[in-house]
Design a protein that fits this description.
Elements: H1 6-29, H2 34-54, H3 62-72, H4 74-87, E1 93-94, H5 103-106, E2 113-114, H6 121-126, E3 133-137, H7 144-151, H8 155-158, E4 159-165, E5 168-173
Helix pairs in contact: 1-2
Length: 179
């Protein structure tokens, strides 16, 4: 569901209200000059955006960095997220922050997600086998899930690789019949 990124709009909303109030007041007071005031407002907002883009380091702003990360995640991570959406109809899935932007693609209830925002995140890093599904971002050297999988004794005996590309791997816990 695309409502995942509504949080960005909610963060900006108070500023837009504060900006809109004087504009509407000016339009009400100076009706015939409303076009000039509106144009000036658009130029001001547009100029602020241009200034933001021209400032070195603008790509490191958290909202922009996450968007760029999502775009750079590439087709392989997106394909893995779509595969998980189609195949992981039950059980919990362990992901790291780099996969968070793909949660709308995965489209599962957040109570099924074990991620840094979850209460059981640290427990899952100590023992990733508490999840039924494990999503590892190979392109992120700091992927906590990938590190936990590498450090977990017997992980490969308990999980099958169900989706694999050079940039991403998805594991699923083996059933009792598979072991």
């Amino acid at each position: 569901s695309s409502l995942f990124n509504i949080r960005y709009g909610l963060v900006v909303l108070p500023g837009l209200v504060l900006l809109a109030a004087p504009v509407f007041d000016a339009i009400a007071r100076y009706g015939r000059h409303a076009a000039v005031i509106t144009l000036a407002s658009v130029v001001l907002v547009g100029g602020s955006f241009v200034e933001l883009v021209a400032v070195p380091g603008w790509r490191s702003l958290p909202v922009i960095a996450e968007g760029l990360e999502q775009r750079a995640a590439g087709q392989q991570q997106h394909a893995a997220a779509e595969w998980v959406r189609s195949n992981a109809s039950s059980g919990r899935i362990l992901i790291d922050d780099s996969i968070n932007p793909l949660l709308p693609v995965i489209d599962i209830d957040l109570h099924r997600v074990i991620a840094p925002f979850s209460s059981d995140w640290q427990a899952a890093l100590r023992d990733p086998t508490i999840a039924e599904w494990v999503f590892v971002d190979r392109m992120n050297p700091f992927d906590g899930v990938g590190q936990a999988v590498a450090a977990a004794d017997g992980f490969d005996e308990q999980f099958d690789i169900v989706f694999e590309r050079p940039e991403v791997i998805v594991y699923h816990r083996k059933t009792a019949d598979d072991r």
